[in-house]
Design a protein that fits this description.
The chain is 40% helix and 16% strand. It is an alpha/beta fold. It folds into two domains: 135 residues, Alpha-Beta Complex (Aspartate Aminotransferase, domain 1); 256 residues, 3-Layer(aba) Sandwich (Aspartate Aminotransferase, domain 2). It has a seven-stranded mixed sheet with strand order 4-10-9-8-7-5-6, with helices on both faces. Strands 13-14-17-16 form a four-stranded antiparallel sheet, with helices on one face. The protein has a two-stranded antiparallel sheet with strand order 1-2. A hairpin with a 2-residue loop joins β1 and β2. It is globular, with a radius of gyration of 22 Å. The site of pyridoxal-5'-phosphate (PLP) has 13 residues, from α4.
């Protein structure tokens, strides 16, 4: 259980901000999370004292930065229970991680007429890289549908799989609906057919325990900024057996062993996939963010967020003008809705003036919106540092919206 929420909120300086003179209520955590002081402080410390480009220096600062960067890799490895730190590739975020796989895995293993399977509820980041690959390779993209509660139609998956299926790539948790997908079922089915699976963990890593060995996924992608770390950081976990077989993604410094005009050879994992100067101080910040989460306990975080989800859903249900999108049995702390038949942008703009930050629009899931035949929703997404009192403010805000629009 999370105790002393007041003290926890003090760990996040931005939460005591005001917006338009009103105390900030930050309900846009699915877009990005706020950062605790430990993250801000360690990055500040490195920039002020130990900024030296990593891996190739002999000097004090380069050594310190390299040690910090590689420690962060170990922190990530332990956090997701990868069997080796060679399986942890630092990227710029979930988008960067998925593009890496689409490009490198796609280059080697996908050919004309082959098939990739995604779901209808994916973020654009887990659609467009596969579309680009399919266009390049003349491959085919197949789509797992979801029902109107926002749950994947698992019984349709077997008929989508064929001997041409090269990869299944699905989200762990939907950013627009909050649905927690039964990825174990998908991974089990895929592996029975010798198909590897990529899990987009952008919305899951901060909410629930992820154990990549237990899940047995082949790839797992997530972003640092959604787990209380800095922007521009992320991770691609990949099973070593796959990563070894995949060609480099980008060329440049660090990813090589020897360069000559006759023949260039490549570095070992994970460096083969980390061309150029990585965001090493960002990675150190992400490591500190993960340590913060570990100290709180991901189970405690899940419990607190579940309580907020239940409270928020109950309170919002009291409005007869509300329509929810995403009513799956298993949900993370995301509530998507339309209110009073209003354009979500109008609702969001009024809430904003009351200091309440929600997201409005398609949430980068246009096919999902098309399925519901809507142009967008209002999305309130909670983190463990949010409170029921803040949810009450959202309710008061919506009462004002209702009055304004009649
Ligand atoms: N996948 C999902 C499910 C997301 O919610 C997001 C971001 O909202 C992404 C991928 C892309 O993440 P990023 O922009 O950090 O790369």
């Amino acid at each position: 259980m999370i105790q002393n929420i007041k003290k926890i909120r003090e760990d996040f300086p931005i939460l005591s901000q005001t917006a338009y003179g009103k105390p900030l209520v930050y309900f846009d955590n699915a877009a990005t999370t706020q950062k605790p002081s430990t993250v801000l402080d360690i990055m500040d410390e490195y920039y002020k004292n130990y900024n030296g480009n990593i891996h190739r220096g002999v000097h004090f600062m380069s050594d310190k930065a390299t040690a910090g960067f590689e420690k962060a890799r170990k922190t990530v490895q332990k956090f997701i229970n990868a069997s080796s730190d060679r399986e942890i590739i630092f990227t710029s975020g979930t988008t960067g991680s998925i593009n890496l796989v689409a490009s490198s895995f796609g280059e080697k293993f996908v050919g004309e007429g082959d098939e990739i399977i995604v779901s209808e509820m994916e973020h654009h980041s887990n659609i467009v890289p596969w579309q680009l690959l399919c266009e390049r390779k003349k491959a085919v993209l197949k789509v797992i549908p979801f029902n109107l509660k926002g749950e994947l139609e698992y019984d349709k998956i077997p008929s989508l799989i064929s001997e041409k299926t090269k990869l299944i790539s699905v989200t762990h948790i939907s950013n627009a609906l909050g649905t927690v997908n039964d990825i174990r079922q998908i991974i089990g089915l895929a592996h029975k057919n010798n198909i590897p699976v990529l899990i987009d963990g952008a919305q899951a890593i901060q909410h629930l325990k992820v154990d990549v060995q237990e899940l047995d996924c082949d790839f797992y992608a997530f972003s640092g900024h959604k787990i209380y770390g800095p922007t521009g950081t992320g991770v691609l976990y990949g099973k070593e057996s796959w990563l070894e077989k995949m060609p480099p993604y980008q060329g440049g410094g660090e990813m090589i062993r020897k360069v000559s005009f006759k023949k260039t050879t490549f570095n070992d994992l994970p460096f083969k996939f980390e061309a150029g100067t990585p965001n090493y101080i960002g990675a150190i910040g992400m490591g500190a963010a993960i340590e913060y989460v570990q100290n709180l306990g991901i189970e405690n975080i899940a419990e607190a967020e579940n309580e907020l989800l239940n409270y928020g859903t109950k309170k919002l249900s009291e409005f007869e003008e509300i329509v929810f999108y995403g009513t799956a049995e298993k949900k993370a702390s995301v509530i998507s809705f339309l209110f009073n038949n209003l354009n979500p942008y109008d609702v969001g703009t009024i809430l904003d003036k009351l200091g309440i930050a929600v997201r409005t629009g398609t949430h980068c899931t246009e096919p999902l919106m098309e399925k519901f035949n809507i142009t967008g929703t209002v999305r309130a997404s909670f983190a463990f540092y949010n409170t029921k009192e803040e949810i009450d403010k959202l309710i008061e805000g919506l009462v004002k919206v209702k009055k304004l629009f009649g």
